[in-house]
Design brief:
418 residues; alpha+beta; five-stranded antiparallel β-sheet; globular
Length: 418
């Protein structure tokens, strides 16, 4: 999406976007809808990128094993009768920052928690802030991140926080975003949402704006980093809670960033988020993007991308303690031998199997009679049971299992595209 330097209109989003090679903040000129649809093509892309990271970019053993190995005795093929979503259980998850599949799941859980706090009745008003500073091509990501974090902490531990509390300040959500381009290499910016339990009067908004800019400039200059007004954004979220949630969904969420046009053109150069950098390297083989990816995860390995105020965590704990646990209604369709699961993974049959199960259960839920879907589903379950027995007979003979899986795959796709 291209950004515009036109003034922000009332019906436009107040989200801030940063040019990749300057400190300029430019507002996004149209809202982008977020859809969390786990269709086959999306899920294939997540798994595809994980395979790519495992083969070429993995820096530790845990990511190389993610999704491949069984944790307990068997892998189970499960489906939720409530949602119709299917998944493999008892599979090892690395929970690494560089794993596309794990990061997708972590991001969704994080967003669910944020939504609970933002939608709480006590939250009345929100202010969106973007903070950044100038940098050079040789600026280290970790050093710049550290300086920005220290500046932010000093401001929100001092007199500015006391001033905010006079107007009902409750807590904050802070996310650090990164964009990358061939003209500037990288650019870092803080996005902060201030949560208020009272409505902040309009005249006070400008007063807080001026005060925060003065403090931010002082703290960054103290660390030999220049700032200017174009790299600073401070505005009330006029559309309320829905707008806050939509923004937080966007920021740092691989599901959004990989599957929406989220790059920008700045001075003739495209600027990309970190997941688009990975996709660029996968598709183009350009080693510049590989170096960007490796440098980012090497320098930011132990850095937190999202932080919260203490009151945020207290309210979230209170909300979750009052919630009644949901009945997941999980049905176990088949127990899969670890060796068979590993072969299914290597033959890239996991996603088609999950997708076929979901089609069957969604048809069943909506009372749709689909003979092909029913036949394909029964073929999957019966074949897995037969192959399981063969795995126990052949022990570790993968060659024979692969030959049987080739036959299974051919018949499966015959059902799939009948």
């Amino acid at each position: 999406m291209e950004t515009s330097t036109q003034p922000l209109q009332e019906n436009q989003s107040i989200q801030g976007n940063l040019d990749s090679n300057s400190t300029t903040v430019t507002p996004i000129t149209q809202d982008v809808e977020y859809t969390n649809t786990p269709d086959k093509d999306r899920r294939n892309d997540f798994w595809k990128l994980r395979r790519f990271v495992q083969s070429d970019l993995a820096t530790n053993t845990s990511i190389r094993l993610c999704g491949k190995k069984c944790v307990f005795n068997n892998v189970s093929l499960n489906v939720s009768n409530k949602t119709g979503k299917s998944h493999f259980d008892n599979v090892y998850k690395c929970k690494s920052k560089i794993c596309p599949v794990c990061q997708k799941q972590i991001a969704h859980k994080k967003i669910d928690k944020m939504s609970k706090v933002i939608e709480h009745d006590s939250m009345k008003d929100f202010i969106f802030i973007t903070l950044t500073g100038s940098h050079s091509w040789n600026t280290k990501l970790s050093d710049f991140h550290k300086n920005m974090t220290q500046s932010f902490r000093e401001i929100f531990r001092g007199s500015f926080k006391k001033k905010l509390k006079k107007y009902g300040y409750f807590s904050y959500i802070r996310q650090v975003d990164y964009t990358f381009s061939k003209s500037s290499k990288h650019h870092i910016h803080n996005h902060i949402v201030l949560l208020f339990s009272e409505y902040v009067p309009s005249p006070i908004i400008q007063e807080l704006n001026d005060e925060l800019y003065r403090l931010w400039s002082y703290q960054m200059n103290k660390r030999n980093i220049e700032t200017n007004k174009s790299g600073f954004y401070f505005e009330r979220v006029k559309k309320g809670k829905d707008k806050v949630i939509k923004y937080l969904i966007k920021s740092g969420n691989i599901s959004f960033e990989m599957f929406h046009t989220f790059s920008k053109i700045s001075e003739g150069q495209m600027s990309y988020n970190i997941w688009q950098v990975l996709d660029l390297f996968y598709n183009t083989g350009d080693l510049f993007w590989k170096d960007i990816w490796m440098d980012y995860h090497s320098e930011m390995k132990n850095q937190k991308m999202t932080t919260y105020g203490s009151e945020y965590n207290k309210l979230l704990n209170q909300i979750e303690s009052e919630e009644e646990p949901e009945d997941q209604e999980i049905e176990v369709l088949a127990e899969i031998n670890p060796l068979l699961y590993e072969c299914l993974y290597n033959k890239r049959l996991c996603i088609p199997l999950l997708h076929s199960v979901e089609i069957h259960y969604n048809n069943k839920k909506n009372n749709i009679n689909d003979y092909d879907s029913e036949s394909r589903f029964l073929y999957i379950i019966n074949s897995i049971k037969e192959l399981n027995d063969l795995c126990y007979e052949w022990s570790s003979n993968k060659r024979l299992i692969y030959s049987y899986l080739d036959t299974f795959r051919n018949r499966f796709y015959k059902y799939q595209y009948k």
